[in-house]
Amino acid sequence: MIIRKLFKFENAHIVRGCSTQRCRASLHGHSYKVEVLLESDYLDNGQMVYDFGLMKQGMKELIDAFDH
Prior knowledge:
The protein is α+β, with helices and mostly antiparallel strands. Helix content is about 30%, strand content about 35%.
């Protein structure tokens, strides 16, 4: 069985080492999508491959690490 979850988030940055002034001084952003797929031949005691709540929390921590 395979479960999957798509995460979408926004991120902004400045490219400080860029050769052009526009790129060095302009804050700009990007939209990102990350898809997580988990596969297992076995289910846990809750009859799940994995708890989506745990997956979302782990991904939130990872995504938040980029937001400084």
